[in-house]
Amino acid sequence: MATEKTTTLADNDIGKVTAIPQGASLALIDSQGTVTKIDAEKLMEIFRKSIKIGVTNLLIDSHKEKAGNYGLGQYKLRKKMTEGKQYVMTVEGEIGNGKDDAYQVWNETGEVPLFICHRSSDGIYKGSFVATQSMANATALNIHVMPSSVQSRCVIHAAKLEESNIATGWTPAPEDLIGGGNSQTFKELQATIFATSPRKAQTKRHHRSKISHFTHCLN
């Protein structure tokens, strides 16, 4: 009969785990001290299924810089959000002194508040949410920085909205790459993507791969 071997890991040891032994089980302990054992591979599968990583940027012309003291401008949606779906928006920019350290997102008329992007790291702001009916009705997003009474310049360098619960790096919307809407030409977009931006510059080879992929990503 196999002998059960139990190992307890301290918080600073978790990062040292590089593989889970075959047939291993994990003990989950709730706040009442109740222990529940679950197969490690099954738990990992639950985690994998809970992660949804988006790719397509739902904002048109999201690479164009926007600036102002209060209202910074509007981004048109390539398609409406779906009520009940998970989304995440990333804004790259700087907020002026005296302002709330967050970008507020409103509907196309600027009358209905939708969600807020809070500071995630230096120059990066993120907002994760499940779309409500009012969000699903929006055809464009207006960006504001409060309070309106404070005159302090705020800037957005780029923005990305994706159907996901994990934010990914900025990419253009498919329409921007194939010349739809009010986008730049494909050649100009290539130059924009290749150039050093608020995001760390990456190799041209990598960006060409991304451009090729997103040209065909129209869903």
Question: How much of the sequence is in beta strands?
Answer: 25-35%
- Characterize the biggest β-sheet: 8 strands, antiparallel
Categorize the overall geometry.
Answer: elongated
Give the total of beta strands.
10
Oligomeric state of shown chains: single chain
Helix fraction, binned, reads: 10-25%
Number of helices: 5
Poorly predicted spans: 196-219
Q: Largest beta sheet: what is the strand line-up?
A: 3-10-5-8-7-6-9-4
Mean pLDDT: 79
Counting helices, strands and paired strands, the structural category is alpha+beta
Give the SSE string.
Answer: EEHEEEEEEHEEHHH
Spatial gap, N to C terminus? 54 Å
- Rg computed from alpha carbons, rounded to a whole number of angstroms: 22 Å
Kindly describe this structure.
The chain has 219 residues and is an alpha+beta fold. The chain contains five helices and ten strands. It has helices spanning 40-50, 133-137, 174-178, 186-194, 204-215, and strands at residues 25-29, 35-39, 66-68, 71-76, 86-94, 102-106, 113-121, 124-130, 140-144, 154-162. The strands form two sheets. Strands 3-10-5-8-7-6-9-4 form an eight-stranded antiparallel β-sheet, with no helix packed on it. Strands 1-2 form a two-stranded antiparallel ribbon. Residues 196-219 have low confidence and may be disordered.
Summarize the structure.
The chain is α+β, with helices and mostly antiparallel strands. Helix content is 19%, strand content 29%.
SSE order and pairing:
Blueprint (H helix, E strand, L loop, with lengths): L24 E5 L5 E5 H11 L15 E3 L2 E6 L9 E9 L7 E5 L6 E9 L2 E7 L2 H5 L2 E5 L9 E9 L11 H5 L7 H9 L9 H12 L4
Antiparallel strand pairs: 1-2, 3-10, 4-9, 5-8, 5-10, 6-7, 6-9, 7-8
